[in-house]
UniProtKB/TrEMBL annotation:
Pathway where it operates: Cofactor biosynthesis; riboflavin biosynthesis; riboflavin from 2-hydroxy-3-oxobutyl phosphate and 5-amino-6-(D-ribitylamino)uracil: step 2/2
Keyword annotations of the record: Repeat, Riboflavin biosynthesis, Transferase
Organism field: Nocardia pulmonis
Annotated EC: 2.5.1.9
Lineage: Bacteria, Bacillati, Actinomycetota, Actinomycetes, Mycobacteriales
Domain of life: Bacteria
Protein name stated in the entry: Riboflavin synthase
InterPro entries: ATP_synth_asu-like_sf, Lumazine-bd, Lumazine-bd_dom, Riboflavin_synthase-like_b-brl
Length: 206
């Protein structure tokens, strides 16, 4: 489990394509400092397992085909910056919200609107996830726990991604995560609030 509070900006330093997966080497001195084989590290919101620690500042991880297809990880290459977070410790504060590291889908950055001290980012939302997203609720974008500041529908867009939501980035988020510099058109990983999905399932079985 994670909290969506990014600990470090890392970098993909090697990518080895395999038959139906890929092996990535990711540099991140902080998250690697106490990492060992089998540990979980969230990479842009995707829970990945450490295979090996390399040179004390990098780790390797295997990414299966399903993850490559269902997330934006497959679009990243050597040199790409990534958000990194170690699994939450049971004695730590829950600074963000409950994040599993299981990506529900991807969205596209539609617009960025800068203000004096923050920036509003609008992101497309797959129609099948829209029911889980509410204004002032939580959502994970590329592993970042964010508060939804606005939601809406654009009927001019293609079916499947007509819904959108907005998040407001404070300077710290802009400076310390990949979302601060991600351009319009970039693909981002989305994980909706797990509590909303459980509530829906319970209602269906009621």
């Amino acid at each position: 489990m994670f909290t969506g509070i990014v600990e470090e900006l890392g970098e993909i330093v090697a990518s080895e394509p395999l038959a139906d997966s890929a092996r990535l080497t990711i540099r991140g001195k902080l998250v690697t400092s106490d990492a060992k084989h089998g540990d979980s590290i969230a990479v842009n919101g995707v829970c990945l397992t450490v295979v090996d620690v390399v040179d004390g500042d990098s780790f390797t991880t295997d990414v299966m085909g399903e993850t490559l297809n269902r997330s934006g990880i497959g679009k990243l290459g050597v040199g790409s910056r990534v958000n990194l977070e170690r699994a939450a410790a049971v004695n730590s504060r829950l600074g963000g919200h409950i994040v599993q590291g299981h990506v529900d889908g991807t969205g596209t950055i539609l617009a960025r609107t800068a203000a004096e001290n923050w920036e509003v980012v609008r992101i497309s939302l797959p129609d099948n996830l829209a029911r889980y997203v509410v204004e002032k609720g939580s959502i994970t974008v590329d592993g970042i726990s964010l508060t939804v500041s606005g939601i809406g529908v654009d009927d001019t867009r293609e079916p499947g991604h007509r819904d959108w939501f907005e998040v407001s980035l404070i300077p710290t988020t802009r400076e310390l995560t990949t979302l601060g510099t991600a351009p319009v058109g970039a693909t981002v990983n989305l994980e909706v609030d797990i509590i909303a999905k459980y509530v829906e399932r319970l209602q269906q079985r009621g």
